[in-house]
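Workshop exercise sheet. Pairs work together: one partner reads the sequence aloud, the other fills in the structure field after running the prediction. Swap roles for the next sheet.
Pair: D.N. / O.F.
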Amino acid sequence: MSAPPSVAPAPARWRDPKRQLWLLGLIVPTLPFISWGLVEATGLGIFWFYGPVLVFGIFPLLDLAIGRDARNPPDSVIKRLEADRYYRWCTYLYLPIQYAGLVFACWQWSRGGLSTIDSVGLALTVAMVSGIAINTAHELGHKRARLERWLSRVALAQSGYGHFFIEHNRGHHVRVATPEDPASSRLGESFYAFLPRTVAGSVRSAWELERVRLARLGSSPWTPRNDVLSAWAMTVALYAALVAGFGLLVLPYLVIQAVVGFSLLEVVNYLEHYGLLRARREDGRYERTRPEHSWNSNSVASNVLLYHLQRHSDHHANPVRRYQALRHVEDAPQLPTGYAGMILTAVLPPVWRAVMDRRVLAHYGGEASRANLHPRLRARALQRYGVAP
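Structure field:
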């Protein structure tokens, strides 16, 4: 009698190694409460600045200490992984804590017990919450579910950046890594030159996208159906309610946290596609977006903080893919550290150029003409990098 055929053992069930870590992202919206607790425990007002210290001091060190994780979930579990509602609640819960912290901060400002410097410190801590809330809105806004898209707008109201929902999805994802995209920075362009260009360009782009959409429906852009106007109206209503409840004293600090918050988003935009350019095809259209058009990082701490935003190439290839299923792409250019650390270099232009310009040139085999250069600065930039225009 022949032996029965051998049966291969079933593969072990895959588990997300970061599954519990995603809850750590909820530390961010609690920052106003943590700052208050540290001040109360120590009597030191410096802890009102704890938010920036955490984001720009502790997280870059954690990235270096913990290192990177380039592991990908196997294809066979992607569908199950994306259907797991646990991950959705890790983002949903950010919003109620975010707004509880905002109300708490307004209460602190309105009491009159804080010095001006302490109040500014608290505003900067709140700005870390509103800035990273834009990333939470980014995750939610790409999804098809109506609830998640509405929650995305709610998350954006605090920073006054509701037009991001329109421009990012329908503008940036179409024009990424091209000179026409206001959210793609150019080789040799400092963050301080990029910031006003991207802020103004994003507003213009969002308004034009809505104007064209509404024109197709036979409507003027001056209508409640304009998603830009409705998004800004949410911010106006929010701020009006906070001023009515806590007084005009809170308004300057609301403005500070909003400006710093959306600047935090824009510095991330600055580093995500710096100098990268999609080539034009023979028909004059740009080539399709590929992994080499986004800078990526697998630094664990920043990835947990930002819901895998640093796996940016896979996000552009699969915009509706949920953060827990985003994959490391081997062909994508890699940043030397996580976004938290790269933000520190971005605000110091000489350091940024020393770190990143050579990486862009290496990415293009030393041919600066293949990079994304500002048209008006092209001849100067090519001369700077040793290539004739």
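Discussion prompt: The chain has 16 helices and no strands. What would you look at next?
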